[in-house]
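Internal tracking record. Fields below are filled automatically when a chain is submitted to the structure queue. Please do not edit lines marked as system-generated. If the sequence contains nonstandard residues, flag them in the REMARKS field before resubmitting.
Queue: standard
Priority: normal
Entity type: single polypeptide chain
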Amino acid sequence: MASATGVPETRPEDEPLLGRPGDVLQEEGKGIQFNLVIGTAVLAQAGIWILTAVIWTGIFTHKLIPFSAHPLLNSAGALLLTQSILILQPTHTPDQKRQGTAIHFIIISFSAFSLYAGLAVILYAKLSHPGTHLKSPHAILGAICYIFLFLQGLVGFTQYYTPRIYGGVGNAKKIYKYHRMSGYATLILLLVTVVAATQTEYIHDQIKIKLWAVTVSVVLVLVGVLPRIKKQKLGIRS
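SYSTEM-GENERATED OUTPUT FOLLOWS
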């Protein structure tokens, strides 16, 4: 049966357990902070906080060394990156989008600072110990991830705050969907990089963080984030 708008109605008993893809919207007059927990966001929150706890507990229950800062900073960056996505996803009115974008920018800035501080730690460690680098899957994925993060942040900032370099607001808006797509790709790449870290010598042999624990946490994050994607924001028609 169709509603007055012509959109097929869904009976409550037919509603998927996790809701329909992209159906989470920020309610009018409700604080934007609730965007962090509505819909499947609770699963993403559970996953990213468990992931962070697993890493931080593993690091702090062993002897701390300068390199310890690398996983601590990167996991904090992943935590903040996830929050920056969750806060913005449900926005749909112009006012909500403006507020969401401003908060997204603040959170993602802290995320980038944390992630690139983690990069600085690993660069210092590698330069201090000459040898063959970028040989493990984690190292290769990490290098790609840092490049993605830089390009993603550069395009995101310029298209919103300095659209004139694209020829005006209209042209800048045309690439919004690509920024969103690459943002989700970057999150997935970062999480896969974290999973790959469990097979490195430091994490696997010394800290002994389990692959299964990290994998389950990452799956929860993705199950929480991906169903909230709105196809129309990606330029995909239903």
